[in-house]
Amino acid sequence: MAIKRIGNRTIKFQNPPSIIGTSSIVGPKEGDGPLRSYFDLVLEYDTWGQKSFEKAEAKMQEEAIKLAIKNANLSVNDIHFLISGDLLSQIISSSYTAREIGIPYFGLYGACSTMTESMSLGAMIIDGGFADYVVCATSSHFSSAERQFRFPLEYGAQRKFTSQWTVTGAGATVLSAKGEGPYITYITPGRIRDYGITDTSNMGAAMAPAAVDTLLNHFKDTGFTPMDYDLIISGDLGLIGRRIVIDMMQKEGYDLSENYTDCGIKIFDTVEQDVHAGASGCACSAVVFNGYVYKEILKSTFNRVLVMSTGALHSTTSSLQGESIPGIAHAVTIEKSI
Amino acid sequence: MAIKRIGNRTIKFQNPPSIIGTSSIVGPKEGDGPLRSYFDLVLEYDTWGQKSFEKAEAKMQEEAIKLAIKNANLSVNDIHFLISGDLLSQIISSSYTAREIGIPYFGLYGACSTMTESMSLGAMIIDGGFADYVVCATSSHFSSAERQFRFPLEYGAQRKFTSQWTVTGAGATVLSAKGEGPYITYITPGRIRDYGITDTSNMGAAMAPAAVDTLLNHFKDTGFTPMDYDLIISGDLGLIGRRIVIDMMQKEGYDLSENYTDCGIKIFDTVEQDVHAGASGCACSAVVFNGYVYKEILKSTFNRVLVMSTGALHSTTSSLQGESIPGIAHAVTIEKSI
User: What distance in Å separates the CA atoms of residue B207 and residue B205, rounded to the nearest whole number?
Assistant: First the structure.
């Protein structure tokens, strides 16, 4: 058994799952950014007619899941498993969405690493022959995250220059046992790295060591070099985290300066849109992958991409009890053809 | 593909994973209960020398994982994946434990369904050939749960007769691609059922419909009847939820009165220990399965058992916003020999 493992931590799929449909829904600020044309739906109001930010987030995730299934030319009942998670305590956006979708459900908590955590588990479930179709999904909302993790919006707290802006949005990916690609060909699941960062306004720095650990293992396990990829894109390290990753990888002998970027940098014009160090949130890599990256793979702009969502696994309680911020990063290789 | 699926929702494993090691650690109150002799470790103090209940919970989970690995005659580095979750916001008990364990990690949130959620995913990962060894784990702590979900302990709130007592403890299960059993032979993953219960002091009633939905699908998919099992045991429905399950199943033509019980009833003497409707918490099914059930399977008291952890997927925020409590139940069949 375990013949699908290569190296220390990487899995090479024998029947690579196809990504046959995606969706991305974003809030108005994200729709004002440079990737506007890639998103399936840009909301006019970030409450979307709901009575709370949390309910608006759940509605975004629900509609994103339905839209991805529709884009895959399937119906909800064709899907064997829904795998999803989000940032909110007890992942209520995902669970209340799963109630509406009504199919077997595995809830995850991987913070902002959720998109590739769900794709990693979903790809194993498909490749292993346990399902024909799986939907992977996540969401985040600037206002539900701010009031849960930081300050009430009404307080008007000044944001540090290291802080990042939580993306309001939701993305979903339909994986299929059959299809003509793009394919998930490899996954390198992450382990937790914690270099002792305690500043919850500097998440990029807290997550960067986990990203480096996953990248190093991925390259060693697969034998790929960075230049074997048309694009390497992390989840939400932002300007500071990306810089740390490039520097740390340089010291290990890997040059990422050519083809590595971060979803948290791509989604906003960081200066014009005043988001300081970039974007964050589960939806950051979800909408950038399911919108921009996936559509550019279909157009053959990219033929092989490494998507690596990154998560900071702390809570307000752990921070108040003096704990540092553990980071994790799950990497997924997506290829247009095999 | 998907040849391992039978019926609507059940998976039958072709290379059933073996459970080669388990562990259970409990607090003093659980150690005073009728299952005392089955637990690997009974703590004298539920803080275990830590400065907070949350840190004590994480320590229990960490030690349970290490102990299960030791009981399986393995070392931590033999394990390919850790799959775990807990009740706390952002599953800090699991994430901080995963930091200490240091191996690739998938974080889950399934509330009190986490034990069988993690075993379901772990079994697919093993059967699919993606890992040789996986550890599945979870924990809960009465005092960390009370102050997060209900009232500060110091407030001395009166407990309703429908309320359940969160188990202080942690359990872990080592799954292996090779071994001589007990085996995980089937899983029936759950979908969310929500009959509109809003009383967070009556979780058994909130989760019972999900348990019934999973049981009905399991019996239909597999062709088993309740009497094909030596024991059917749900996670933490307690006295009220168990009664509802028996009644609802009776109406569907299934008699569970003979061999069905609930971990939340087994772990405490509900009258003498003053726990009202029984026990709850992720650790409830975790320690009852990894302690009592597993050891009795080894002794051949039971040859085929259905373990079904049950989760209530709400949060304090969702309750304050008027939402009802969605329930989920994941069922796992364990057989001594195949």
Answer: 6
